[in-house]
Structures are given as structure tokens and as C-alpha cells.
Amino acid sequence: MIARKNMGRASPMLLVLLALGFFFATYNLLTLVIQYKDSSAGLRSGISDPVTGMPANSWKLGKSNLKFHVALTATDAPYSQWQCRIMYYWYKKMKSMPGSDMGKFTRVLHSGKGDHLMDEIPTFVVDPLPEGLDRGYIVLNRPWAFVQWLEKATIEEEYILMAEPDHIFANPLPNLAHGDNPAGFPFFYIKPTEHQKIVRKFYPEEKGPVTDVDPIGNSPVIIKKSLLEEIAPTWVNVSLRMKDDPETDKAFGWVLEMYAYAVASALHGVRHILRKDFMLQPPWDLAVGKRFIIHYTYGCDYNMKGELTYGTIGEWRFDKRSYLSGPPPKNLTLPPPGVPESVVRLVKMVNEATANIPGWDSLNSG
């Protein structure tokens, strides 16, 4: 169901809603980051053992050694478009490198209509949720997008990587899944055991202990297509039920849909291999090393001495939210001396992509 192309501009009201949405998202990030400073200390100092959790008997299955389809859910907003272009550039560059198990790529566009990137990025258009159902929480469209895509698209690979626009492949990514056990990234702020009362509303005691709910979101996750086909409809339902419950909505906030995926997986008896080398998140993770994906969700603010000024706009900064209505310019200024290698690498990778993507300025102007 590839939809028609559309060159329309985003309405002023949409930009206002986006700005409000990102204000609340930024607020949530600021409250989470205080915890991240302490909990990620081990990650910043290096990864001695990247596997933090392995379901029973998974080692006996061996590595999957099968290609996975890269599925990127997105909207047609300029903010999403420029991130998708950078992400797709690095996918193409890493796909054929030694160690990669990447297969084909699809941007699952949940805007209900095509956009001007249809010819540049392989795209499958699906419908958003009915108007008002997401209540301004746009990521509720993600599970619904996967349900539609899985039902209607032809997907050759047996495995799927669920990815997001603000992911950059820093190293060739192998298939980290083992048979029926998907691989996921453990998020420090997804803590099912600390929210047992709420989790039990959606994951009853007869299903098992709360510890069976993995500390993950849906992305990044590499999972068998057949398993995702089972989980996705439950993921939709749990997401909507969580959003309809005021206590759950308040407790989980911007990460509600992540909890919904974790609960939906547990309801189907699916446990994830927890790989802390799956992803890094500057500025808190200081080095890229052998990790596979750079997730640039946090703003990077520094003074000219190379000191982090998180929560205060720095003399030097890179924050994706600075570019809500259009793309970052080419050739961003590199960080000052003393800034961690992960941040320097991120900016260099953004600069390389923008320098080599045809029509960067013109196609991203609306």
C-alpha cells in the first residue's frame, strides 16, 4: 500500500503541537538524566560483558546468522524526515561491511500519505490511529504502524530490527537474536519491578513474576517476524489501555509505549537477550567502542573548556530538538577539546551524512 507522494508543508498548528510535545519530552529527559548519571557509570567506563541478561537455554540455540529487515517507524514532519535521511545514509554504508547481517530497509510512514522522501528511502505508508486516539502522544502510532506493515507488506527476512529516526549505525550490526529469543537494549529507566502495582494491572499474577517483564522498549530490538506478528496487536491494546488509565499514564509518561511493548512481550512468554552493547547514548556514554547504534536523544551541551553543562544551553551544543522545523546545516562546528569521543563521533557522522546526501538543503526545506 504505497501511497501517493505529497509535497505539502506542515501547518503552523502542527508545529505548535510538536513544540509542546517536545517540551514535555525534554522535561521527562531532564528528570531521567539525574538517574542516568549514576546508573550508567559502568557503561561509560567500558563494557566488559555486553550481555546483561540471557533467557534460559538461549545459549544452546546458537547465533541466528540470518539477515534482519531494518524497520524504521516515522512521521512526515520535517523533524522526523531529516533524521530518517541521516539514519538511512549510515544504514547503506554499514549494510555491506563485514560483520553486518542487515537485510532490506523500510521506513514505515504512519502519516497516512506519502511525502517527498518516497523516492529516496524505501517507504511503506500506513494509517495513523483514528484522530484523537493518541491524545497527543504520537508514539502510540508506532505499534499500530507495525501491525499494519506486518499484515500488508512482503517481508523476505525472518528477523526484524525495530529502529527509530534518531539512530545512527556506528558499527556493522550482526543479528544479536538467538532463535526465538529477541535481542533488546536494557534501559536504565524501564523498571517494571519498581512499578509492580501498575504493571499488575496489565500483567496479572497468574502470568508469572514481574521480573519476567524485561527492562526494554521496542527499539532497538531484533526479533523474529513471526513473534512480532503475535506481539504487535497485544502491544497496541496494552498501549491504549495504559494511556486510558490515569495512574499508569502519569507514572510512565513519555515512556509508556516502551512499557507497553515490554508487558506485551511478557504476556506472550517472550524474553529478550539484554545487550548493553546494542546502543550508546551521548553525552553520558563517553566512547563508541564496539557498540552498534548511537542514539542521540539527549542534548549535548558544553562550555568551551569541554565541560558538560546539561540542563543549561552550552556555548557549544548539539540537540536534535534545535531543528524541529528543518534540518541541521551542513558542516556543524565540532565540539571543543575535552568533549567525549562519543559526542565528537556523533557530530562527525552527522556532518558526513549531510555532506553526501543529495539535495540536503533543498529537500529538507519543506
From TrEMBL:
InterPro entries: HPAT-like, HPAT/SRGT1-like. One of its GO terms (molecular function) is glycosyltransferase activity. Pfam families: HPAT. One of its GO terms (cellular component) is membrane. Keywords: Glycosyltransferase, Membrane, Transferase, Transmembrane, Transmembrane helix. It is a single-pass membrane protein. The keyword Phosphoprotein does not apply. It is found in: Membrane. Residues 68-361 form the Hydroxyproline O-arabinosyltransferase-like domain. This is Hydroxyproline O-arabinosyltransferase-like domain-containing protein.
